[in-house]
Amino acid sequence: MQEPEEKKIALELLETEQAYVNRLHLLDQIFYTELMKEAKNGKTVPEEVVKMIFSNISSIYQFHAKFFLPELQKRMEDWSCNPRIGDVIQKLAPFLKMYGEYVKNFDKAVELITVWSEKSLPFQELIADIQKRKVCANLTLQHHMLEPVQRIPRYELLLKDYVRKLPPESPDRDDAEKALEMIFMVAKHSNAAIAEMERLQNLWAVYQRLGLEDDIVDPSNELIKEGPIQKISTRNNSTSEKYLFLFNNMLLYCVPKVIQVGAEFQVHLRIDVDGMKVRELNDTQFPHTFLVSGKQRTLELQAR
């Protein structure tokens, strides 16, 4: 007899999970364990670096190897009398939020591997040695590390397919639909983690350009817009090049540094957004001008 379509997808989920657990075993029990052992002997890199590269891979491995894979195997063996996987995936879904940390750390981890491979020959040689083993299938550490990043989208695709193929009267329909919704939310959670990481990286880059002034560096700030501007001097009817950074809570009025050692700009003035007013001016001599007035000061500026 022809196997029902939904069973084929459930079996594919089980097979890919088995292969995935093998990949996690390679990352956690071989790469991480052996690199950590060498780091403890003080031969390759600091232990902290190895921990930062592998993030929370051990928790992810334990979860899949000891919980999710055995649950799936048990369910597929029982398929003839209990044809469903929706409830198992519902139990799994909340734990997938663990991936947020791994995904958020991924770019940094890959960068650390590159940096330390150049800095430390023993580190580079140990990775190369593990990569030569049959279990690595001629693939690099970075390639294997990408697998957990791609796993949640893979669950989502398989489960979507499974729900589509379920007969309307299937006893698994409600559970499977609910499970799909939960996986979708986890994927969103993971994407939000990446977006937040990028926001903080960009914010940090801006702070470095401003010379890391203590009262400006705050992770909760949001950069809204930045760009060059002309400051109008009414005294001698001239303009001079300045630069603005508009955050959600402050406007920074800066002067570009001629000699860019460290910072690119010097902050001349900070105007709180709270209570700040912006008014367009009709000046025939200086078109595109506007007035920014705040608690601290009023500036007459000209845009391009």
From TrEMBL:
Domain of life the protein comes from: Eukaryota
PH domain boundaries: 222-304
Organism listed in the record: Calonectris borealis (Cory's shearwater)
Domain DH: 5-193
Keyword Zinc-finger: yes
Membrane-crossing residue ranges in chain numbering: none
Name of the protein described by the UniProt record: FGD2 protein
Cell compartment(s), UniProt: Cytoplasm, Cytoskeleton
GO biological process, one term: filopodium assembly
Keyword Zinc-finger on entry: yes
Pfam family, one: SOS1_NGEF_PH
GO cellular component: cytoplasm; cytoskeleton
